[in-house]
Amino acid sequence: MLGITPRRSYSTEMNDGLPLVIQLQQKAFDAQDSISTLLRMSKLVAIKLGVEGAREWIEHELNGYEGVVNDDLPKYRKVKGSPRARNPFHGWIPMTISDNDFAEAISTAHIIQSAGALEETIRSHPNEDYLQINYSNQQYTILRKMFSTDFPMAIHLTPASIWAIVDRVRNLVLDWAMALEREGVLGAGMQFSMPERQKGSIVTNNYFANNIGVAGDISGSAQLNLNQHAHVGSIDVAALRQLIAQLEMNSSALPPEVRSAMAPALAALQHEAGQSSPDPSKIRTLLASVRTACEGAAGNLVASGAVELIKALLGG
After folding, report:
1. CA angle at residue 40 from 209 to 294, to 5 degrees?
2. How far apart are the C-alpha atoms of 26 and 38, rounded to whole Å?
3. 167-172 average pLDDT score
4. What is the pLDDT of residues 68-106, one digit of tens each?
5. pLDDT at 1
């Protein structure tokens, strides 16, 4: 297994004069900041933005992917190596497999350790020629029968292939932070405005879906696009209709109790939005009911998106 040796921690001071997203970019760019420090700051940004997709990925990179099935690991954590067996007379020797598919399977290491642990391993073993990943008990049993031997077996990986994971995580954070900046999502004064949170949600969901393949706690591909803004002192009826349509389209991604709780208010909203002169006071009351129902589904992206859009419609 990969070993871990403690080393000195780097400074975690933040420059309060710079917006949060710019600080995040600086930490991603500076290799002297540990990957754990970078991920903790990424978590801060994700929490303040209210973006669950980013936070889920960050939590895994901070704490590891224990319990995550191999197929669901990010592609950059599936690393090709050299399958070897340890001969008591000749040391580690290559394992030759004629079946290409099986050879591919036993040559692929699924790396579940946290990014910080991987960084520690590489930095604390600078002169190692290889790192070793042991097979699972089930894999070892199959290989032992196939080769008719009790030799220890493992996948040997180059340090560079492990460092590539750490580097990939750093680059993903940097690219995410730059994507946020391009959309004007900065976080001045350690806080994000409501328009920034709306834009940040869209940017983050798209970025992580395209680059990692995860977008938080979503059922299927359901999500709300928060791209409407409320008009001051009035209700944006077009945005209201869009909210209703999206909630109906993505209702299957909501918990059953939330769907039941908001159904009467949603039906009344749909009726009111179809009137030639909708009643703003009635709409606000109904929106508050839908919002309360959705707030009962903490962590659900559709519900969280609805809450944020309702806040915008109500002016905060």
Report:
1. 55
2. 9
3. 96
4. 888 889 999 999 999 999 998 989 999 888 788 888 889
5. 45
Beta carbons within 8 Å of 276's beta carbon, 6+ residues apart:
none
Q: Are 288 and 245 in contact (CB under 8 A)?
A: no
User: In Å, what is the CA distance from 126 to each residue of 18, 120, 158?
Assistant: 35, 10, 11
Q: pLDDT digit string (tens) for 177-234? A: 999 999 999 999 999 998 898 889 888 888 887 888 653 333 333 333 333 333 334 6
Q: Which residues pair with 85 in a beta bridge?
A: 93, 153
Assign 3-class secondary structure to 18-32: CCHHHHHHHHHHCCC
Of the listed ranges 62-66, 179-183, 278-282, 285-289, the least confidently predicted one is 278-282
- Separation of CA 217 from chain center: 10
What's the pLDDT at 18?
Answer: 92
Give the Cα separation of 131 and 4 in Å (integer): 12
Q: In this structure, what DSSP letter does residue 75 have?
A: G
At residue 80, φ and ψ (nearest 5 deg) are -80, 135
Give the chain's largest Cα–Cα span: 89
Mapped to the 3 state alphabet, what secondary structure does the chain carry? CCCCCCCCCCCCCCCCCCCHHHHHHHHHHCCCCCHHHHHHHHHHHHHHHCCHHHHHHHHHHHHCCCCCCHHHCCHHHEEECEEEEEECCCEEEECCCCCHHHHHHHHEEECCCCHHHHHHHHHHCCCCCCEEEECCHHHHHHHHHHHCCCCCEEEEECHHHHHHHHHHHHHHHHHHHHHHHHCCCCCHHHCCCHHHHHHHHHHHHHHHHHHCCCCCCCCCCCCCCCCCCCCCCCCCHHHHHHHHHHHHHCHHHCCHHHHHHHHHHHHHHHHHHCCCCCCHHHHHHHHHHHHHHHCCCCCCHHHHHHHHHHHHHHCC
